[in-house]
Design goal:
By secondary structure, this protein is α+β, with helices and mostly antiparallel strands. The chain is 24% helix and 29% strand. The strands form 4 sheets. A 7-stranded antiparallel sheet has the order 2-1-7-6-5-4-3. The chain has a 6-stranded mixed sheet with strand order 8-9-10-11-12-13, sandwiched between helices. A hairpin with a 5-residue loop joins strand 20 and strand 21. The model has no long low-confidence stretch (mean pLDDT 88).
Length: 475
């Protein structure tokens, strides 16, 4: 892990114009003010952000380093590996020939798949061109096959994609776009072409889409490019578990200063934060203090750091370009929602509100989640995103389906969550919360394909949410 951090820091330090590159996403320029690394077990946690978005990845290894490029292995959902690239645009070759070649090779593999599986259909369109206006990524080849007035939309997820599961977001957008563009065709639904090792998440998601809105067919391909049809009924079990909720004695009164939030974690430890940014936490009888790296410290150390943070990370801060102000906006939004949850929905109880339960291996979700309960005992999943994210609806679905799984089995009460509250085994609500102008334009287009059995609501808050959390619309 130390070697990983040292290699990344060395590469960035030697770079003239470093950017972070993830397939299907815009490059994110890297500076010393919008980038951090910290140890996380056997991995290194990388964080990068700008005014629009934030990115968090767990780095497991350095895959390779070439002139102007450092390729990192990242942990993805289900403990599968993906890649992320750090590129020095001044030193790397101007034309990314290997990436372009790989995309062309996979596009031809996708073409052969469509011809095998749809022999009676004409391949009317096949492209990997970017279409930013309609939110279509070049990382996933997309196609239209037709026979007379009958047609299917299709999308392929290449094996080297960092976010294989992101293909479904772009696939639904492609399906919706084609239905608007090709009004003379009856486009039955979406065909998804997936690497066999990474198919599970997409197949689980497909089970929760509306069969009345579209038909869905999934195929898994192996290393030789040979595919087989997937029976979605085989994907009934979820990789999820619910840890017991432990409770601890009250927080040390010496840290009970107005700027500090004390959040009880489900493992019984306490997290101390200023506007969502953790600066200290308990570990048994010990107090760990620090931002990127936490070390044993005194209460006085924690208070001094909290006061400095409260000056820099404040809605009234003079310097809004300061990295501490810009860092992890989702955590800041989470802090505001925790404090003012009844502004989000008056029926929700102000406490307890839990974060990151149930636990599942989703290192690259990029959203924060909260779990609350209303006065009737019905659970509500609250997904938070402070910037535009095309994948928000389906990432929220990942979490919602796991909460629903545990609700159906009565496990929240059994594991000690929401003590004293009678919990209903009713389908949980799903609330998507984001600044009103920062919902991605495609969000509604993706949500219209969700099963009507998922009670989902979009809640847009005012742009000044750091200062005052005010709901601007509900949809």
């Amino acid at each position: 892990m130390t070697e990983i951090i040292e290699a990344i820091e060395r590469f960035i330090g030697a770079s003239l114009d470093p950017v972070l590159c993830e397939p299907g996403e815009d490059w994110l320029p890297i500076t010393s003010e919008n980038f951090s690394l910290q140890a996380q077990g056997a991995c290194a946690q990388l964080q990068a952000w700008d005014a629009r978005r934030s990115l968090v990845r767990r780095i497991t290894a350095i895959e390779r380093e070439t002139r102007g490029k450092l390729v990192l292995k990242v942990a993805r959902f289900g403990k599968l590996a993906g890649t992320l690239e750090l590129i020095d645009r001044r030193r790397a070759p101007a034309d990314n020939v290997p990436l372009r070649s790989a995309r062309l090779v996979f596009r031809e593999q996708f073409r052969r798949f469509l011809r095998r599986q749809f022999p009676a259909f004409k391949l009317a369109e096949l492209t990997t061109e970017a279409d930013l206006e309609h939110t279509l990524s070049p990382a996933y080849p997309r196609a239209l096959v037709r026979k007379g007035t009958e047609a299917w939309a299709a999308i392929g997820a290449p094996p080297e994609a960092t976010n294989v599961d992101g293909g479904l977001s772009f696939g639904l957008i492609w399906l919706d776009y084609l239905r608007l563009r090709e009004s003379a065709l009856a486009i039955r639904g979406l065909v998804v072409y997936l690497p066999a090792a990474d198919a599970k998440t997409t197949c689980l998601r497909l089970r929760f889409l509306d069969p009345a809105a579209a038909e869905y067919r999934a195929f898994a391909y192996d290393a030789d490019g040979l595919e087989e049809s997937i029976d979605l009924a085989d994907f009934g079990n979820l990789d999820t578990h619910l840890e017991p909720c432990r409770r601890r004695a009250l927080a040390p009164s010496s840290l009970a200063i107005p700027e500090v939030e004390t959040v009880e974690r489900s493992d019984g430890e306490l997290s101390f934060r200023v506007n969502g940014l953790e600066f200290a936490r308990t570990a048994g009888s010990e107090l760990l203090v620090g931002l990127d790296t936490k070390r044993p410290g005194s209460t006085a150390d924690a208070v001094a750091l909290a006061r400095e943070l409260s000056r820099m990370r404040s809605a009234a801060a003079a310097d809004r370009r300061n990295p501490l102000y810009l860092r992890n906006p989702e955590a800041w939004l989470e802090s505001q929602v925790r404090r003012h949850i009844q502004e989000i929905d008056a029926s929700l109880g102000p406490t307890p509100v839990y974060g990151q339960v149930p636990a599942f291996a989703a290192a690259d979700r990029g959203v924060l989640d909260l779990l609350a309960v209303d006065h009737r005992g019905r659970l509500a999943v609250i997904e938070l995103k402070a910037s535009q994210d095309v994948h928000l609806p389906l990432q929220a679905l990942d979490y919602w389906m796991r909460v629903r799984w545990h609700v159906e089995r009565g496990e929240f009460r059994f594991q000690g969550y929401f003590p004293g509250q009678e919990l209903r085994r009713e389908v949980p609500r799903l609330l998507l919360v984001s600044p009103a102008l920062d919902f991605h334009p495609s969000t509604d287009r993706v949500l219209r394909y969700f099963s009507p059995g998922i009670p989902v609501e979009r809640i847009g808050v005012g742009l000044q949410w750091r200062k005052e959390l005010k709901v601007m619309f509900r949809s």
